[in-house]
Write a structure and sequence with these properties.
six-stranded parallel β-sheet, TIM Barrel, two-stranded antiparallel sheet, 23% strand, 33% helix
Length: 191
């Protein structure tokens, strides 16, 4: 397995990560035991970066992942989850307020059975008021980082100009990771 550092975070992560959205039944139904076994197999084979969100399966992915992580030593993996995009009772919703972001981190930690989150991302900032992200969401997450509740803070998005907007308006070092869902093609090589 090849490992690379994410930015300057010190996190040396496997070049293949475990995207846990499938644990929430996002693509098709999945037996909980099968999902737990998949997590264990991935970690046993050197995959050390696991990404999830409360949005995936409307909390279910975090719940199943939390059950899988109970029996895995915390030093064997890095855990990434998100704030801002959620689902409940079959409906999607977005809330990028400082209060909801903070509450969401603690709720995710409880579902995931962990004492801290390695990387907390603001999910899909293209749906957010970018000023709110800069003035509310990021400062709230930076405060959690100062307390050691989260180790690193990042943002996710499809459109590169939104990243630039945020990065240009927050203190250097506030955002430590960017996850772009860019659609790299012959006609779109913006990344």
């Amino acid at each position: 397995m090849i490992y690379r550092e994410i930015g300057k975070t010190g996190m040396k992560v496997s070049n293949i990560s475990f995207g846990a959205s499938s644990l929430g039944g996002v693509f098709h139904s999945l037996k909980e035991e099968t999902g737990i076994e998949a997590v264990h197999t991935a970690v046993d084979h050197g995959i050390n970066f696991i990404d999830v969100s409360p949005y995936y399966g409307h909390l279910k992915a975090e719940i199943v992942l939390g059950k899988a992580l109970k029996t895995i030593d915390r030093n064997r993996y890095y855990l990434s989850t998100k704030v801002g995009r959620y689902g409940k009772d079959g409906k999607n919703y977005w809330d990028y307020s400082a209060g909801k972001a903070t509450e969401s981190v603690y709720e995710s930690m409880e579902r995931l059975n962990v004492g801290y989150i390695d990387l907390i991302n603001i999910h899909d900032i293209e749906f957010a008021d970018l000023e709110q992200v800069c003035q509310e969401t990021l400062p709230a997450l930076a405060e959690l980082r100062q307390k050691g509740i989260v180790k690193h803070v990042g943002i996710t998005n499809l459109n590169l100009r939104h990243f630039k907007y945020v990065i240009d308006r927050v203190p250097a070092g506030t955002v430590e990771s960017i996850l772009s869902f860019c659609h790299y093609t012959l006609n779109d090589d913006a990344l």
